[in-house]
Design a protein that fits this description.
Helix content is 31%, strand content 30%. A hairpin with a 2-residue loop joins β1 and β2. The radius of gyration is 20 Å and the shape is globular. By secondary structure, it is α/β, with parallel strands linked by helices.
Length: 288
């Protein structure tokens, strides 16, 4: 299997002079996903948990709805210059043949669509809308989740070049963590884990990411029935619009004990008095 890190020569320039030494980098390689022998897409990813990635991607694109829709997932033969299998082509055999068109790939095509069209696409395609009610999560519990996620980023410690996505219970238990050079791949991997563990729709789980909350990440949460997304960094306008449309709780700038809540405040149990919240939101934005 491919390695997730690699060593490369590097010259570090400092005020005290130059230092030449090897550096540990995150591996980035293409993964071609095939469905029933036909090429579906190619994504640049960090090798590892490719089966999870494939399942999460197919769920996010509404091609499958459960793990039972997949008969098999196997690597195809492909070798490098040394004759070693590259493990960069994965073929998914579906139980029922699917009609797939490029319109299924909203994250690839949405750049040419207006905001309303993108929102309508997700709303009509999602199988698992977030639940109207719970889970209810304490603001202090949610605020602590990014630190837990960070402590489980094993490869990030050596490279500093990976995003992470984690699934938590409402009481703050971290169930699964996946890392990848692409934030969307990290989310697909952890959603794929949930699918294979028969936890989709994930109505009782919270998705936390080490990146910003972009439209595509909110889309993936909605497609998996996840009711809450917490992000360490900022949220985009279209991400907020989709979260509001889908009744998904969206929290951004979740760090340092504060956060910005853009939608779904009814799922957050707050320790502070309601009148103090606007000031907390403003300070969180200023700190971002």
């Amino acid at each position: 299997m491919s390695r997730v890190t690699a060593r490369r020569k590097m010259v570090r320039i400092t005020p005290g002079g130059q230092i030449q030494r090897p550096d540990t980098l995150t591996v980035e390689e293409p993964l071609e996903l095939r469905v029933d022998g036909r090429s579906l897409t190619v994504t640049m990813r960090t090798p590892g948990n490719d089966i999870d990635l494939a399942h999460g991607f197919l769920l996010s694109e509404n091609i499958i709805g459960s793990a039972q829709d997949v008969l098999s997932a196997r690597y195809c033969a492909g070798t490098d210059a040394d004759g070693q299998n590259t493990y960069n082509v994965l073929d998914i055999q579906l139980r029922t043949s699917a009609t797939i068109s490029t319109r299924n790939f909203l994250t690839n095509s949405s750049c040419g669509l207006c905001g309303k069209t993108a929102l309508d696409e997700v709303r009509t395609r999602s199988r698992f809308a977030p639940p109207t009610a719970g889970p209810i999560v304490g603001s202090t519990v949610l605020a602590a989740m990014p630190d837990q996620l960070r402590s489980r980023q094993a490869v990030f410690e050596s490279t500093g070049g990976l995003h992470a996505a984690g699934l938590f219970t409402a009481d703050g238990v971290l169930l699964a963590v996946r890392e990848d050079i692409g934030r969307h791949n990290a989310v697909d991997k952890v959603i794929g884990w949930a699918l294979l563990e028969d936890r989709i729709p994930a109505h009782d789980l919270i998705l936390v990411v080490s990146s910003r909350a972009s439209f595509e990440l909110v889309q993936k949460a909605v497609m998996a029935g996840i009711p809450m997304l917490g992000a360490v960094s900022a949220a985009s306008s279209l991400a907020v619009d989709l979260a509001v449309e889908s009744d998904l709780t969206l929290a951004a700038f979740v760090r340092g004990g504060s956060m910005n809540i853009y939608s779904g405040l009814h799922r957050i149990r707050q320790a502070a008095a309601p009148e103090s919240l606007p000031g907390q939101y403003d300070s969180a934005r200023a700190g971002g």
